[in-house]
Amino acid sequence: MFAGQIPFPWFMANFAQRLKELRTARRLTQTRLAELLAISPRVYSRWETGDVTPHFDTIVRLAEILGVSLDELAGRTDVSSEAIIKNPELNRLCRKVDQLSDEDQRALMVVLDSLVKRSKVTKVMAEL
What we know:
Elements: H1 8-25, H2 30-37, H3 41-49, H4 56-66, H5 70-74, H6 88-94, H7 102-127
């Protein structure tokens, strides 16, 4: 083994545990995450149990969907305390918001604010 190399069994157990933690923190089911990856839920389940490890390109996609770095996904670093949007598709889009013009960003804030307010009103009305 090379100096600094991580033993493979340690990586698999740590990866499986971290993958499950990240998925549950984002309130995703195994089935939904499998859908986002275009794989079968059975294959995904085997990753979380540590039976198998996905290919590197799939690990990269997992990190993107979960909104973490590869080091965070592998358990080499703590997950950043940065605000996390649990919906992976919305998280992906939000990371691109900085690329919008200031005018488009302001318009997006107005739309989001109105949706949040509408949701609150709907909840209040349902309680009456």
